[in-house]
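Reagents: none. Just compute today. Pyroglutamyl-peptidase 1-like protein isoform X2.
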Amino acid sequence: MEVELRILQLPVDYREVKQRVTRIWEDLQPQTQFAVHIGLDASAKAIVLEQCAKNRGYRDADIRGFRPARGECLPDGPEVIASEVSMKAVSKRVEGHVEGVEVTSSRDAGRYVCDYTYYLSLHHGNGYAALIHVPPLSRWLPARLLGKALQVIIQDMLEELRKPELKAWFAENSTAVIPARGNQLGDCSFGEN
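Predicted 3D structure written out:
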């Protein structure tokens, strides 16, 4: 089976995210089996694996000043959607595998664009998605160390999902480095808002 890795940067824009995430899952089916979103949490001191996403409570405006109608992601959608991956178990298994990097789990992704993105992805992917909140790059967490930690975490998630074809591809390509432009990685920029 052929596996394709795509890295897309999504803007901090509810409407654009809704269009792009929907398109990712619709256009790439049945190839898209699991989506991993990486978001910045400027106050985080650890990598946080988010277990679930919420449908309501989006009161803060995005970069364009937009707020979702009634503060919800999908009208009549379930209040909470959880990932098929046990983030608590993943965080326990990978803790200590990358020296100097703390990994924890959470059940509250923050009710902003990353949580909104995650909810849409979980909805369209029937639970086969993950959201990883990362701290800003720093002297104690340079890009190379963060990349290694994300590799270990995502590999563990794939193993938990028991997708042998993805696991084999990831192991085969584990030394590949995909450079990001500037200080960006994945869905969200590492810059301060």
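The first strand starts at residue 35 and ends at 40.
Action item: order primers for follow-up constructs.
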